Amino acid sequence: ATPTAVMVATGVGASQGILIKGGQALESAHKVDCIVFDKTGTLTIGKPVVVNTRLLKNMVLREFYDYVAAAEDNSEHPLAKAIVEHAKKLHSEENHIWPEARDFISVPGHGVKAKVNDKSVIVGNKSFMLSSGIDIPMEALEILTEEEEKAQTAIMVAMDQEVVGIISVSDPIKPNANEAISYLKSMNVESIMVTGDNWGTANAIGKEVGIEKIIAEAKPEQKAEKVKELQLSGKTVAMVGDGINDSPALVSADVGLAIGAGTDVAIEAADIVLMKSNLEDVVTAIDLSRKTFFRIR
Ligand code: ADP
Ligand code: MG
User: Its principal location (predicted)?
Assistant: First the structure.
């Protein structure tokens, strides 16, 4: 393509909220035959809400949430925001404050840890509990399976190394997710979902959006490894994601697309930024690139 054609395409993209960082990004996009999608915040709306809480110990709900919110208030993760929002609602006063959290640690793709008052608090997925040396009771595992089959993410809460509760969070798929995926199929582009979330929820969401190839419980490095593996098999791979946890994969991909109001880290790592949270823009970006580069051949 001529520099002028690239400039025109870049301009057309920008006018639709698709920011293409240079000619190379635009050129690579026309060869893409495989797209790896993150789940949370990419295929789903990314504004999860707490829909259920199951306490395994005799605790006052409000107190339970004070501890959890104190820990999660330090995290940028959409799940953390949902939990903090929910905790706020349990208090009638406007400016309720949680206890101070100390020694806060956030482990991307796993969860958070902090000291709150006298307790050590761990909030996150099953593997985070296991790697933290916490035994998961049968009852908790049963609740987990139950919630995951409903496409909800079940988050475990441990206090002083004991699972005390499970928070279920629901994050619906984006309204146009299905259409975008089936449109890509018609363009001979294969879609794959890679998520840090658990298998149960991932499969349930995959069914809703029409993606059959799914990789769940993937750590951020594993998302990148999957991208590289697909590249080795001869594919030109795009990665679409929104979070810090997606950055390694965004960098590894032939084309990294950061979606919506993603984190700064993701936006920086990406080649193309989709300003609106719209999945149709993935289609538009590839289409724009194909129109620019196939024409001249
Ligand atoms: P995704 O790939 O779907 O965007 P992440 O990789 O960000 O998901 O997270 C994977 C899983 O790790 C989440 O589903 C959740 O169980 C757990 N997790 C991550 N961050 C947090 C957090 N701040 N609080 C609780 N759980 C978390
Ligand atoms: Mg995400």
Answer: membrane
